[in-house]
Amino acid sequence: xxxxxxxxxxxxxxxxxxxxxxxxxxxxxxxxxxxxxxxxxxxxxxxxxxxxxxxxxxxxxxxxxxxxxxxxxxxxxxxxxxxxxxxxxxxxxxxxxxxxxxxxxxxxxxxxxxxxxxxxxxxxxxxxxxxxxxxxxxxxxxxxxxxxxxxxxxxxxxxxxxxxxxxxxxxxxxxxxxxxxxxxxxxxxxxxxxxxxxxxxxxxxxxxxxxxxxxxxxxxxxxxxxxxxxxxxxxxxxxxxxxxxxxxxxxxxxxxxxxxxxxxxxxxxxxxxxxxxxxxxxxxxxxxxxxxxxxxxxxxxxxxx
Length: 305
What we know:
The protein is an alpha+beta fold and about 300 residues long. It has three domains: about 10-90, TATA-Binding Protein; about 95-250, Ribonuclease H-like superfamily/Ribonuclease H (Nucleotidyltransferase, domain 5); about 260-305, no CATH class.
């Protein structure tokens, strides 16, 4: 596995009495397992994370999920201060790079959107100050706000593959990862026409060779780093915001065009009902224009017609 920096696996912070009480309540709701620890109020663990709250108020957090726990639970829900310790715990490559991420690959309806964002020191500071993070951790309203800022202040590229084109590519390529690799490569190439850069960070989705082979002349000198939970890097997080914002916008346009509210995700009953309505209103051929036909859900939609 490629590593951008040494992973942060330990963090300490001082809690007051109210924060300690909120922490214990929150850990109980998350099904942490509690244990007795000398000189401590309690110890608790879950998965790859362990915590010890000492009687002095010091909280020790350890494990490979430390960054996510602090950034997405401790800060917003317990400390009520998102910026606390942010520079120390966010796992991030320091330097110029392109971050790339996608949205829509698990959604039956709507496009597949791949976005990329170039970050240098100045833009990195701006996005940190705005608390840009993985789009899955942000409300749709906040995504719309951040999308506007990122598009205004950063060099970026968005490749949106509409359902009809997506279905054609799937027949030709026969594999979702090949489509993703093609889209990631196009985004990287597009950004390299606007700025020079020597590194691109991607969320892990398949073999790195797929992207390398899809790159053209301009992109073949760039270093590709694929990373599990790539959104922990700020550039990838910014790309995820652009990709999700574009996906939601285009899904709404498809809904308006066909007069049927197309749901997010791939929840079977909801998707089948919407698919049935699409066919009823616009015919069988319309399904190809709004959905990803290779999903198993297609057979179930057609079965109820």
